[in-house]
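quick one before i forget lol
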Amino acid sequence: MITHPSRHCTVELQALPSRIGQVRRILSAQLRYWHLDPLIDRAALGVTELLSNVHRHAQPDKTCTVRIELMLDRLTVSVRDHDPRLPVVGDADPLATCGRGLAMVAAVSESWGARPDGEQGKTVWFSLPTPAALKARAARPPRRVAVEEPPVRTVPVPDSPVRFTEVATVGLPEVEPLGLPAVEPVGIPEVEPVALAADALRPEHAPARSAVAG
């Protein structure tokens, strides 16, 4: 039975391999109708893993209900079965071909969990943020985180006086001056003054004096 209210879709089925493929197609069609195409791959992978767990482990039967619900900024997909035992995430062997279902659900979703439904069964669910919610988060300014500076630690100074240690000086040998030979002064010969004739000192255009008195 399939119901299609405005904001949720419910599918009741037997968790058999042939029916799991049908649920994936119903989920993809519903998300396209809600214009949530970017969520199809992750939602289909998550619901496949949850239904596979019901097929492998649920008792006493494989009857389950898949519910797809859109609420404001998130899409929630849940699977309810008749087995009250809650799933446990274990460490799968690196070479194992199964045992990683819940780890994959946690990897592709924003959050996931399991809640008991009395003694009649349990519900395992996961949620994905809608594209509109991701855009709103990206447009939101980052929060400022106040960084507290570490307190300054003061180191107490002891009251005892500071002791100085005497350092022995190293004696250096005295250096004797080098003996240099005395330099005798060089004698410069005296230059005798040259007697110049009076005519040589007369200007070139000055008239010559007459030796005759007149």
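fyi The CA atoms of residues 55 and 165 lie 87 Å apart.
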